[in-house]
Amino acid sequence: MSGISAFIQNLSLDVTAGAVISSLFVCRYLEVNPSPQMMLGLGIAIWLIYTIDHLQDAARSGSETANPRHAFHLRHQRVMLVSAIIVFLLGTANAFYLPLSTIKAGLILGGLCGIYFIYLKLSAMHRFKELLAALIYTAGIFAGPLSLVTVWDWSYLILFGLFLLPVTANLFLFPLYEMEIDSKDKIASIALNTGRKKTTRLVGLLLALHAALTLWSMIGLPHRGQEYVFVLMNLVLVMLLIWPQQFRNRQLYRWLGDGIFFIPMLGLL
């Protein structure tokens, strides 16, 4: 992996950008107009969550960590902490430019994040870490757009599921690729807790449910012509599940796995 690519991944900039793009896609679907400040707030929230999470994992792993992201955060711990504080203050200032409904949604999201980090602190096995992270990431994508909606439509729940399922499958897939690293660093993951075979089957089930939900949305919901986005997201994750050896080198699986949240950009064209 090149220096620039590693830098982007270590700082979770790709994950942050993917969340913003996905949220813009949801705004297009819901037919609402987000402000630049709203998207900035989402980017700040996602970046802070991932940065704090990586800092905690790095501290838990210690100086001998085999995970490149954790090693990066441990090596630059002071800089990352100062950066997180500055970004948090920027987010606080940005909140004054957001609608009250969006601020309320942000507070709910902040509460979920608080529950997540308390859970990580109290739980030794972290059995629900990936699931909680998936819920928070998806909630972050939807918080801003839903705060602008004036009339609720049940199809929004379907759209939420169309994002939640691949986000969850994605976060279950990565531990399969990183079982050896996580085991060495003593970082609990769903793959280590339940085993490779069960986790693989669970990811397959999630992707099958996602494919079925996508098909149902094509047939049962008003056609918007954007379902191909979810088909492509699913296909990428299926490839990562079926051919792990092809994507293990240079952490290509992470680029592809996190890259699925750039696919909604096609629905913005």
Layout of helices and strands, plus pairs?
Elements: H1 3-10, H2 13-30, H3 36-61, H4 68-75, H5 77-95, H6 100-122, H7 129-147, H8 155-177, H9 179-185, H10 190-194, H11 196-220, H12 228-242, H13 244-247, H14 252-259
Task: Describe what you observe in this structure.
This protein is mostly helical and about 270 residues long. The chain has one domain (about 5-269). Helix content is about 75%, strand content about 0%. The protein is built from 14 helices and no strands. It has helices at about 5-10, 15-30, 35-60, 70-75, 75-95, 100-120, 130-145, 155-175, 180-185, 190-195, 195-220, 230-240, 245, 250-260. The longest helix is centred in the N-terminal third of the chain and has 26 residues, at about 35-60. It is globular.
How many domain modules? 1
Structural class: mainly alpha
Determine Rg (CA atoms, Å).
Answer: 18 Å
Low-confidence stretches: none
Separate helix tally? 14
Order of helices and strands: HHHHHHHHHHHHHH
User: Tally of extended strands?
Assistant: 0
Distance between the termini: 30 Å
Residue-averaged pLDDT, rounded?
Answer: 91
> What does the main sheet amount to?
none
- What is the 3D form? globular
Strand fraction band? under 5%
Give helix % range. Answer: over 70%
